[in-house]
Design a protein that fits this description.
Blueprint (H helix, E strand, L loop, with lengths): L1 H4 L2 H17 L1 H8 L5 H11 L8 E3 L4 E2 L5 E2 L4 E3 L9
Antiparallel strand pairs: 1-4, 2-3
Helix pairs in contact: 2-4
Amino acid sequence: MLIISAGFETTVGLITNAARDLFAHPDELKAVTDGRAAWSDVVEETLRRDAPVAHLPLRYAVKDIRSTTTLSSNAGTPSLSRTAPPAAT
């Protein structure tokens, strides 16, 4: 069930934000519906200006972290936290 509904809230949020912004700016809506601007531009601009996920769960390293792989993190560098367990192999 999780896989079926995954991304639902962010997708609805993006569509809602884009529609609200386009209705608030009829000239931009007309440019898109007339073909002078692409729908992909609407998506990109909405994600840039008013993303459905405004606050990401950033974590900050308190000291330098080095590993044997190419992954490393310097103290104070933000990174996204992993909230799901690793996939079974």
